[in-house]
């Protein structure tokens, strides 16, 4: 195989008819000259004929090499550009395919297991919190009391405790008509029932509840607190804790300190606002 230098040095053989042959070969005849003229004409016609470039050039001169290199770089750039376009089209196609597949999977998951679909959502935590709040608010709307309920028999007393929702706190005031502090406690519970509409406040006479005379004399006013059918608080003779002259705020503070009422300062704003809205509607 010839080197690039050989091709460059030998380019005259391909493109020119040597004029020095007459000086070097003075003894050549006219026939040889005619033959050379014909040969030059054929070669010129051959190289003058245009043809589509197939990536290989016979023009091996310095300018030809540069042009070939420039053409090569141009084709290479065009090839890269074409490949980039194909890549972009492929990426776009794949992304659309993936997006479509994901949408189908999401729809299928929503139909078969909506809870799991929610877990996979980008804003799941926020939506979960909102949903839980809505459930809590919906539940509290159903469990609305807002007043003191009079229990007129032991059966009503048992039903008020055993048949109530397990999430409801029930505060029962056991009182007697002519015992100091009982009437004041009744007035305080009326006020608290309005402030805590989702707490069930009840009252019952000690005589109806079947309590002993001694308890009716020394145990009232008494507050019994129930939840889930169980006693969670038992406070007798409340005047020992609050004195003979007390207010609803004193009873509220006492119940909060003993964990019987939720501190409103710890209740989320959305719930407290909803309670106020519900009470207004009532």
Written description of the protein model:
This protein is α/β, with parallel strands linked by helices. The chain is 60% helix and 10% strand. The chain has 14 helices and five strands. The protein has helices at residues 4-9, 12-15, 21-24, 30-48, 62-112, 114-119, 124-142, 154-162, 182-195, 206-209, 213-218, 239-242, 248-257, 269-281, and strands at residues 148-150, 170-175, 200-205, 222-227, 230-235. A five-stranded mixed β-sheet has the order 1-3-2-4-5, with helices on both faces. Helix 7 packs parallel to helix 14 (269-281) and helix 9 (182-195) crosses helix 13. The longest helix is centred in the first third of the chain and has 51 residues, at 62-112. The chain is rod-shaped and about 125 Å long. The termini are far apart. Residues 7-25 have low confidence and may be disordered. Keywords: Phosphoprotein. Belongs to the phosducin family. It comes from Lasius platythorax. Residues 50-274 form the Phosducin domain. InterPro entries: Phosducin (IPR001200), Phosducin-like_reg (IPR051499), Phosducin_N_dom_sf (IPR023196), Phosducin_thioredoxin-like_dom (IPR024253), Thioredoxin-like_sf (IPR036249).
Summarize, please.
This protein is an alpha/beta fold.
Quaternary structure of the protein: single chain
User: In percent, how helical is the residue content?
Assistant: 55-70%
Query: Gyration radius, to the nearest Å?
Result: 52 Å
Poorly predicted regions are: 7-25
Write the H/E string, N to C. Answer: HHHHHHHEHEHEHHEEHHH
InterPro entries: Phosducin, Phosducin-like_reg, Phosducin_N_dom_sf, Phosducin_thioredoxin-like_dom, Thioredoxin-like_sf
Pfam families: Phosducin (PF02114)
Family: Belongs to the phosducin family.
Keywords: Phosphoprotein
């Amino acid at each position: 195989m010839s080197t690039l230098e050989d091709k460059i040095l030998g380019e005259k053989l391909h493109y020119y008819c040597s004029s020095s042959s007459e000086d070097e070969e003075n003894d050549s005849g006219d026939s040889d000259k005619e033959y050379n003229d014909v040969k030059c004409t054929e070669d010129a016609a051959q190289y003058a004929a245009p043809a589509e470039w197939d990536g290989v050039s016979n023009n091996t001169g310095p300018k030809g090499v540069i042009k070939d290199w420039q053409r090569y770089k141009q084709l290479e750039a065009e090839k890269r550009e074409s490949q980039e376009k194909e890549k972009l089209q492929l990426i776009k196609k794949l992304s659309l395919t993936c997006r479509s597949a994901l949408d189908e999977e999401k729809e299928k998951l929503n139909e078969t297991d909506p809870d799991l679909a929610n877990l996979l959502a980008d804003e799941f935590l926020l939506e979960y919190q909102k949903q839980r709040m809505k459930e809590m608010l919906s539940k509290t709307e159903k469990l609305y009391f807002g007043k003191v309920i009079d229990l007129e028999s032991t059966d009503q007393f048992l039903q008020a405790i055993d048949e109530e929702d397990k999430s409801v706190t029930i505060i029962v005031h056991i009182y007697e008509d002519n015992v100091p502090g009982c009437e004041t406690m009744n007035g305080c519970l009326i006020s608290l029932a309005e402030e805590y509409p989702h707490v069930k406040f009840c009252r019952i006479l000690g005589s109806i509840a079947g309590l002993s005379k001694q308890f009716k004399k020394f145990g009232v006013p008494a507050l019994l607190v129930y939840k889930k059918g169980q006693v969670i608080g038992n406070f007798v003779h409340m005047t020992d804790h609050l004195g003979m002259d007390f207010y609803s705020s004193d009873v509220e503070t006492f119940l909060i300190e003993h964990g019987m009422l939720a501190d409103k300062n710890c209740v989320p704003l959305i719930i407290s606002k909803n309670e106020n809205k519900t009470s207004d509607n009532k």
